Amino acid sequence: MASAGEAEISGVPGAGVSAVCAGQVGHAGSPDAGEGAVSTREGQAGAGRGEADARRLAWVYLSRVVEGPCAALSALIESVGVCEAARAVREHELPDALRGPTAARRGSDSAAADLACITAMGGRVITPDDDEWPSWRMLALSQLDAERDRDAAVPLVLWARGTLSLQQASERAVAVVGSRCSTGYGNQVAGEMSADLASRGWTIVSGAAFGIDAAAHRAALAVGGPTVAVLACGIDRPYPAQHERLLAAIAETGLVLSEYPPGVGAQKHRFLARNRLIATLGDGVVVVEAGLRSGARNTVKWARRLGRPAMAVPGPVTSAASVGCHRMLRESETVLVTRAEDVIDEVGPLRMPGGDPMRPDAADQLRGAEADVYAALPAIGSRLPRALADQTGLDLATVRAVLPGLELRGLVGCDSEGWFRVTSRAAT
């Protein structure tokens, strides 16, 4: 039986989170009557909506509880599902690793209020269940070792304001970052490079800070290109405050993002965690001007760990604003770039390390969700992710995360009809 805690999280009167997530919402109707069949279908549709609502509330509740990346909570969700994880957090049935991170806010459920707040400001919350969740981008982040860095975790949700689809905006994207105390040279280079990339259809991702970040965003906006600002605070709190109009302009045609719920203020550790998302959402990271202790170097660190190209623009050897760039270039942490063409050459098209393609028997080495998804693909024809989720019993977010990995292994491909086995398609 569902507990009271589950009912509170679900937001569905009379139904606990576990029941709603399982689609176990009762409905009336007699199997012998036509109206009974209609009622059954309506009940099933209502159960589906109830399950989706319960899952969304559970995601939002957990996002508020930890306020930022939490690898242990992500692991729990992966293991038992988001609704059961929310119940466990509320009832304090947790492993030791999660007791501390959840203690302060687990008893306060503001999920419904948070959703109302974000809706009122014209925003939305993006969860791993949503079509625009960038599963492909998050795949590399999910495979990092959280013991090496506590921020090495996929965000639970992303709070968003703007017209762009996150999945579409991140399909071809470059992160441009650099010094807050930029020079005229840095602003010019960042602006010209960002404008050139944006005019060619590349999304410019940055952090909306003073200096290089702002120059990159403004350049993309000036040419009518897409740009995404990733904040280290709630999206209801423009940061810096002087960039309120810039962030509003970005939201009109692009996207303002944060993993932090409404009302959360900017703090130093949140900027460092935010940098991993900037690196994750781009095909590569470009640094234009960085001092010796610049935070841009932290973004480069994340890019390298994620396997993304890291690039730096050189500056005058006499400029303190470029000391960090020169050091990263000298120590081979970054590749030298001076124009948009250099950046495109590094980040696209996607180039994999050399080596022989996987042998046809590589499918025999698959395990877990990868094996289940591959086995569900037909020998002939294609399947959409939702159909694969229904067939395998896996959640849709997992299926979407697994498919790109299988594609990189050379086992599957996709076209307008869906995903297919490469060997079977080649044979036809």
UniProtKB/TrEMBL annotation:
SUPFAM superfamilies reported for this sequence: MCP/YpsA-like (SSF102405)
Domain spans labelled Smf/DprA SLOG: 125-347
Family membership: Belongs to the DprA/Smf family.
Protein's name in the database: DNA protecting protein DprA
UniProt region (Disordered), positions on chain: 28-49
Top-level lineage group: Bacteria
Gene3D superfamilies (UniProt xref): 3.40.50.450
UniProt record, GO biological process: DNA-mediated transformation
PANTHER family: PROTEIN SMF
